[in-house]
Design goal:
Layout (H helix, E strand, L loop, with lengths): L1 H11 L7 H8 L3 H12 L17 H18 L4 E10 L11 E10 L4 E11 L17 H18 L6 E8 L7 H12 L3 E8 L16 E5 L9 H10 L6 H16 L4 E5 L12 H5 L4 E6 L12 E3 L2 E3 L8 H6 L1
Parallel strand pairs: 3-4, 3-5, 5-8, 6-7
Antiparallel strand pairs: 1-2, 2-4, 6-8, 9-10
Helix pairs in contact: 1-2, 1-8, 3-5
């Protein structure tokens, strides 16, 4: 999580703090708290977006209420410095083949208002929901420890630490639902931001930040990837023609955001190895930065360097000696602490 902190501190222009305080803030990240939060999310059994919303112990409803309660607690500890609320979107079968019955997709939002530019926002997001092999299976256990309890826990931890300080710009700590059903939560919240005329500096999509062991057994606890699209999805024909004439095919706002994060990490965390990936996302895959990119906002996906597909979108089982499933033992919390 420390890489995210540097981006916030240096792009958001922290107020009333000496430069040395930056490192004190970074050192406040707590791997044990991250582990406890991931454990809590895993223990809801499944967080599938179509799962139980009534139970206090199982399902997406219990998970999002717990996340909101954590944001509420953090706000209480900082003299009500957060505006905490649900942002809701209603989806039916016509919206996605993965919506097999009508559902409210509820995002959990916590806004720390900036002192100088309250309508200028930096958004850090994690996904609430989880899935197993069948994206329509909302009954069976789906722990989703790395994908994406790790990212959601990271977002909560950032809120715990940064709310102790004041910033020029507003920060949004955001739990998004419906990612596995077709980026539903991100689509809804991006439209909400657009409707409210938010000026967004950047979106940091915090997705899968806990795995250090690749499917081939290679272990790397220092590297991570930053995905970014080259140019704006909604550029005009005039802008496209100008770019073709003057160049700048890799100089879009999301790509520049990725470079800024890369430079900041190399300067202040030289032990880490950020890898710039000049793509919107992995081949054939999607993340919750995309809906924001689709509306013209700068946004990137930050994630582990080495994926383990035995642990990703898998039914919980043991086959031929291989333990499948996104379980908590597959998350390295010292690595989460760094990212």
């Amino acid at each position: 999580m420390r890489n995210f902190f540097y981006f916030f501190l240096f792009s958001n222009l922290i107020l009333c703090q000496a430069p040395n305080d930056f490192y004190k803030i970074i050192d406040s990240i707590n791997a044990e708290r991250l582990k406890n939060d991931v454990s809590t999310l895993v223990n809801f059994g499944t967080r599938h977006s179509l799962s139980d919303t009534i139970s206090n112990y199982r399902g997406i409803g219990a998970a999002r209420r717990w996340i909101k309660s954590e944001f509420d607690l953090i706000s209480k500890q900082c003299d009500n410095c957060l505006e905490v609320f649900y942002q809701k979107n209603y989806f039916t079968k016509k919206d996605s083949e993965r919506i097999i019955h009508p559902v409210w997709v509820n995002n959990v939002v916590a806004i720390q208002k900036g002192l100088k530019y309250p309508n200028r926002y930096i958004i850090m997001s994690g996904d609430i929901d989880s899935r197993i092999s069948d994206p329509l299976n909302y009954i069976n256990d789906s722990p989703g420890a790395n994908d994406n309890a790790s990212g959601m826990a990271g977002t909560i931890e950032v809120a715990r630490v940064l709310t102790k300080y004041k910033f020029n710009n507003s920060i949004v700590y955001l739990g998004l639902s419906g990612e596995e059903q077709g980026l539903m939560g991100g689509n809804g919240f991006a439209a909400f931001a657009k409707k409210n005329n938010w000026e967004i500096i950047g979106i940091l999509n915090n997705d899968m930040i806990g795995n250090i062991e690749g499917v081939d057994g290679f272990i790397d606890n220092r590297s991570f990837r930053i995905f970014s699209e080259p140019t704006s999805f909604i550029e005009t024909e005039e802008e496209r023609n100008s770019r073709r004439f003057y160049g700048g095919e890799v100089d879009g706002i999301s790509r520049q955001l990725a470079r800024y994060i890369n430079k900041t990490v190399k300067t202040y965390m030289p032990e880490m190895n950020p890898i710039l990936i000049y793509r919107l996302d992995r081949f054939g895959r999607g993340g919750h930065h995309r809906p924001f990119n689709d509306l013209g906002y700068a946004g990137v996906r930050i994630m582990e360097a080495h994926e383990n597909y035995d642990r990703q979108h898998q039914d919980l089982r043991i086959k031929n000696g291989i333990k499948y499933g996104d379980r908590i033992e597959g998350v390295n919390f010292d690595y989460v602490d760094k990212l």
